[in-house]
Amino acid sequence: MGLNHNLPMAVVFSSDLTDGVFDVTWSLFRDRVIWLRSTLNEITKNTNVNWLIKSHPNDIRNKVVTDTVSEYNKICTSFNHIKLFPSFLSNSSLPEIIDLAVTVNGSVASEYPCFGIPAILTAETNASDLGFTIEPKSKQEYLNYLNNFKKPIRLHKNQMDKAKIFIYISKVLTKVPSSLMSTCNIETDKVDKFFWDSMIKCLDNYNYEDDLLIKMMKIQIENNDWHTINYNLLN
Fold first, then answer.
1. Which domain holds residue 211?
2. Closest among 114, 120, 127, 128 to 157, alpha carbons compared
3. Measured between alpha carbons, how far is 33 from 81 in angstroms, rounded to an integer?
4. What are the C-alpha distances in Å from 234 to residues 80, 158, 207?
5. pLDDT tier at 56 (50, 70, 90 boundaries)?
6. Which of 87, 123, 172, 193 is close enough to 105 for a disulfide, judged by CB 3.0 to 4.6 Å?
């Protein structure tokens, strides 16, 4: 990739630039394109770090015109310490090689802290204010952090534990299946045929009393809990 292997590695995880842009209560930047441009411009100044820029999968899926690659090409091509995320590098290998994750409010804000890797975010996310993310209070504070980041800093064990607990709650406990919903993937399956056929079968075979989601919601109501979770996993 032409990077200096003696320097720390940071990855900028670009977000979907068009979906869910204004669904947060706070954000340091007006929108995600401005965030991306500001981030790319700032990291051109910090040559003490290798920077990888990772596109969001929806850039290609939605055929976005203004995407991560186009912004990179405008700003970063003349800087040897900044490269696009290579296609041969798998996501599973990243925890072994990176020292910082940068995101607007993506899932990496909770994923990488599980491995002790700090994640800096610039907008509200489900993982905000839980003690394991870096959350600048202003644009300038965020940009200063990017410009001054030089030495890798690992998170403390209690921060890693908090991140792991959050992942378990959000990815496991709250995922309560319902027999009323088809399990097919509408992003890859033919929605006009397979999905609707599956939904019709679910309706035809639906039994209210056997639906796990209904059972869990009844417990939620009895406990006066805020969220529906799979209480069976707590036994």
1. 174-234
2. 114
3. 22
4. 50, 22, 25
5. confident
6. 123
E strand or H helix at 9, and its extent? strand 9-13
Q: What is the mean pLDDT of residues 39-53?
A: 96
Helices first, then strands: H and E counts in the chain: 9, 5
Identity at 219, one-letter amino acid code: I
Whether 112 and 146 share a structural domain: yes
pLDDT reading at 199 higher than 80: yes
Residue 227 token pair: 């969220």
Using CA atoms, how far apart are residues 127 and 163, in angstroms rounded to an integer?
A: 8
Q: Are residues 220 and 105 in the same domain?
A: no
Span 139-145, mean pLDDT? 97
Cα first-last separation, the chain: 49
Tokens at residue 93, please? 């290998």
Amino acid letter, residue 7: L
Q: 10 — phi, psi (to 5°)? A: -125, 145
Residue 196, pLDDT > 90, answer no
The phi and psi torsions of 148 (rounded to 5 degrees) equal -100, -5
**Phi, psi at 164, each rounded to 5°:** -65, -40
